[in-house]
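Input:
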Amino acid sequence: MKDLQELQNIILQAVKDLKYPSQPPDLYEPISYILSLGGKRLRPALVLMACDAFGGDVKKAVKAALAIEVFHNFTLMHDDIMDKAPLRRGQVTVHERWNQNVAILAGDAMMVEANKLMLQVPDAILRQVMDIFNDTAAGVCEGQQFDMSFESRDRVSADEYINMIRLKTAILLGGALKIGALIGGASTKDADLIYTFGEQLGIAFQLQDDILDVYGDPDKFGKQVGGDILSNKKTYLLIKALESAREGDAAGLQQWLDNISADPQQKVAAVTAIYNNLQIREQAEQAMQAYATKAFAAFDSIDLPNANKQYLRGFADSLLVREY
Amino acid sequence: MKDLQELQNIILQAVKDLKYPSQPPDLYEPISYILSLGGKRLRPALVLMACDAFGGDVKKAVKAALAIEVFHNFTLMHDDIMDKAPLRRGQVTVHERWNQNVAILAGDAMMVEANKLMLQVPDAILRQVMDIFNDTAAGVCEGQQFDMSFESRDRVSADEYINMIRLKTAILLGGALKIGALIGGASTKDADLIYTFGEQLGIAFQLQDDILDVYGDPDKFGKQVGGDILSNKKTYLLIKALESAREGDAAGLQQWLDNISADPQQKVAAVTAIYNNLQIREQAEQAMQAYATKAFAAFDSIDLPNANKQYLRGFADSLLVREY
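Output:
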């Protein structure tokens, strides 16, 4: 069994070895550029880790892992256009460094490249893997569209929100694990279980991210604490607060949401106080815990010795035990 | 054997029968919308026609034909954003009717849907078909990028231009025919020949389009005669004229290109006169004829009785015998 670090190194090398045509430069240079920006390469590492857990040769899963990484970066390139984001991993985004048309078209080409890479799985599992890959890709598009449409809506239900983060983020973890498991020789049943593990873990992780935005330790949490509050982002916390707030809290919360020139520190403190009053943190943690429990229940049902599962379990634990 | 009209009707019905999820509406409604705008459905009809010519059951090629049509419309949706086009087939474009982000994301989802449709070919040819499809898709992206980058360049060579139209337009005709042929049971050799037929025919057709823009009969040619001249579009004619013009013609041509407030009628007449002086029409017709000859040479080498080839030949003839 190989640990996360070793698998990430394999991906790192494989990404470096990816070669694209030199012409036309404005199509292929942006692809090499975004893939060179780094990131933790967790999604492709999950492909390898699942393959490894089922006793497969990780070398045989490298192309599929790259397919997941190229697909993920394609979605980032297009999301950055939609979000008008100036930076990605601290570097200038493709649509800013080149232009928007280049970013649209290079993203399209990456989707094709991701398919080419994924098609290199063995014949015996080709159709199954491509079906998972396309279902995942369609779901990620749906999740992104839900996310964008939520921005312009007054209210979003907690169920709608969970479904959005499931599609936008969680199913790619599930899909990566399932494809890796199939390459490693997993049964359909175990492949389904590891998909559920990834999907539910992804939802729990995203809920944790929402909690950390408000309650995280600024030194340990990578982003600015309160950033979601300042941007009025419809996180699980805000959605639950809008659902349960009555009278004074409801009016106060709405006032802060409507106040576009509020002092940042005051707004974060005031909204956090309303969350505290409504016990939103506890509700969010309960929800997060419920998804984590589902994830680990599926994981425990996978028919593998514990020794084979240790790195996957360790990965899941590390994902969910960030300091508050 | 079925004629073009009958095959187009099959496609028309199949496009109508395509059903997409109702949620999220801003992802799937634009897909149904662009597919409902019509068009001649030539590319998907070519899939069926090639399948039919090789004695295959066209019903078994309908999903692949739809894949080609959905892919083609995905490229149109994204091209329209890049070109800032207000209209597509006389109707409002997706990025104008919804917004740009919707058009980016719905296009992405169409690419996934095209893959899902293409994956429904039989196992025996699955890998071969998906390889053709992805190579074609990558080529189309390359062609679009070359086309965009040519706009900002002073000079483009005739070879570069031919390669651009080959990638942007012609190879999708070749790919559609080749995939249809394989579904119909063609040998690899015949599948390669029909690809060359489509590719070379596509180049000839595009060159004819360049000629018709200047020398077409305004009543028969669908677009405004001289439109390419007015927009300084680097067509085969302009490229050849810039290559061969000397002294007076060269200076005159450059003056008209630089004159952004020229009277339209005067500009078209003057540039056409320079083309006439340089015998550009004859050069372009020779080039077009050379590609048509290559197309028909490949077509004639396909190991099929003439009766099986009649509709494909008729299609090619109809494409290239437009009145000037």
